Amino acid sequence: MKELVDLAHDAIRTGDISKKVALISEMRSLCQSSSAVSLSHRESAALIDQPGMPSGLRLVHPRDLPRRSLQSIEGKAGFLHAIAHIEFNAINLALDAIYRFSEMPDEFYADWLLVAEQEADHHNRIAACLERMGYRYGDFPAHNGLWDMALKTANDLISRMAMVPCVFEARGLDVTPPMIDKLKRAGEIESAKVLQFILEEEIGHVRIGVRWYQYACRRAGLDPIDTFLSLLQKYLPNKKQGPFNLHHRREAGFSEEWLSKLEGLSG
Prior knowledge:
By secondary structure, the protein is mainly alpha-helical. It has one domain: Ferritin (Up-down Bundle), CATH 1.20.1260. It is about 65% helix and about 0% strand. The model has no long low-confidence stretch (mean pLDDT about 90).
């Protein structure tokens, strides 16, 4: 029987969402049958340069992505396609946390498996919205920025937990409410409802990231806030931060001191 790390590898490498979901389900079954056995793998996992992507999907530099108006069906579909791509990447990022980092408590693997399951559901909900418009995931170009950050942080748990869930996914908490409003104004009520559902679960995903980021900092004897600010400078120098959705970030576990220092960077 394959181990958890092997199943995570296979799930990352496939670009077929149905196969990805099936492998995640197999991972869940393995976890449930291995409660008395550590899920942590011992050997260093080989770097995955590029996860599997659906046939036909073209990856481009972010600056080469066209800007589309929500006044047309194509524009609405392109907007939702970008969200579907983020959710597809989020599945792989959650799986890579399982695949990449060894010697962690079993709760770490269980948490990121839950995130992978929910991100797959999010992707499929957005894909269904696309299909109602006559499109599918892979019909528009997309960028690879999220996976690029996964590669940059592949060898450092603290950096990965900081930059992916506590920066990129937390940014989703900031920008999703305005996106929901934009979809409503464009008459996309059902799509807006899907994004509202996703937002509520994403708060929990960021909370998981905050938890394990703080755990990794404590284990290394580092101050989480000072370390976070230095990592921002290392990985995203000169990138403007904010504005922030303070309410949702508080729900996700950001402390008042953390938020205050982040707001100081956005001025």
